């Protein structure tokens, strides 16, 4: 493979072809540090043309490619396997903001742009790019689109798919498809954009995107409500949507144990209530009129929710600092859970109307099969996405509990399927869940997916071993 690597160096510069084991290490280990692969090299192209040239070289020499953005994925989709035969194509150097159009409300960017940079650039133009998630300081928009990322704003703005108007993609043949059209309406054939979004780099490499922008809200207000059950949270959601309409942009469910973990590992972060409650919901309104109008809506909503026993208590943030403190409770749940020890994570979705039944039934099944397990249940209730995580019983070692991960997953995913849900809501399938979908997708779906893969990547060089069952 020396000739291949020499040609790569000629194509993108020797300093951007990384072969030293220590220098490659950060590209080979997944975000949760559960798996470390091996690679022939890490290639860091600086332009779409360089990506295309590298793909043609990989095709010529039969070298499999693993596209990588910020490497913040949670399903082993952005790291190589352990053969050492693959190369990682890291798009981190491709980080230009190509254009901002405030009349068309679009931004055209390189795929390697960090999400937070895009958010800040939009804000500087007095616009909003609403995709928001915990890893926004390091994840890239190419990875967000490749995995069809969700986050906290899906209730109002939709997933990454709904926030993208056009793509630039390097195909498995090393050709460049320029689909960077900032059009809301374009009925000229098959929707190639949506085909590549969510494909996790298995069909081609996203190198650029046209993103939707929105007017900046005049005000954002936040509240934390406490209640006795997920069913009460659903009742509050219905009321909030009825009273607040499109101004409701956040609705995050958190169980009591979630906030207990946060308070345990981050003592400066305490729930703002004199007593604990079974469930909490973090609500956010984004108002196009004024802060006074938003506060009036919130106060009316909270009053009615209290009077109708949908909630037991609530606080409305009266300042940006108080709002930030409430969001910190939500955003520190994964960090607190990591500090507590290893756990078994699930990124699932079920129809919103079934969430209460799903949690109640699945909690009982898990307690029956694994007595003493501790449930860390939180997520985007407004769009049906739960991070339904399971911590081991007290006194049970992490290693022993993780050894039963398949059994835990089977209980959870079977329950998701019974409730007409999905075993991956926003993280993708990667290598972690690819084989499980055999149990939950029809043969027709699997055949159609395999047919698309063969048609667009007949040599199976684009992120092989991901998404599709072996």
Can you give a write-up of this model?
The model has no long low-confidence stretch (mean pLDDT 96). Helix content is 37%, strand content 20%. With 470 residues, the protein is an alpha+beta fold. The chain contains 17 helices and 18 strands. Strands 15-12-14-13-17-18-16 form a 7-stranded antiparallel beta sheet, with helices on both faces. Strands 5-6-10-8-9 form a 5-stranded antiparallel beta sheet, with helices on both faces. The protein has 4 domains: 89 residues, 2-Layer Sandwich (Uridine Diphospho-n-acetylenolpyruvylglucosamine Reductase, domain 2), CATH 3.30.43; 119 residues, Uridine Diphospho-n-acetylenolpyruvylglucosamine Reductase, domain 3 (2-Layer Sandwich), CATH 3.30.465.10; 116 residues, Alpha-Beta Plaits (2-Layer Sandwich); 98 residues, Alpha-Beta Plaits (2-Layer Sandwich), CATH 3.30.70.
Task: Please report the number of helical segments.
Answer: 17
CATH class of the largest domain: Alpha Beta
Residue share in β-strands? 15-25%
How would a crystallographer describe the biggest sheet?
Answer: 7 strands, antiparallel
Keywords: FAD, Flavoprotein
Cofactor: FAD
Domain FAD-binding PCMH-type: 35-216
GO molecular function, one term: FAD binding
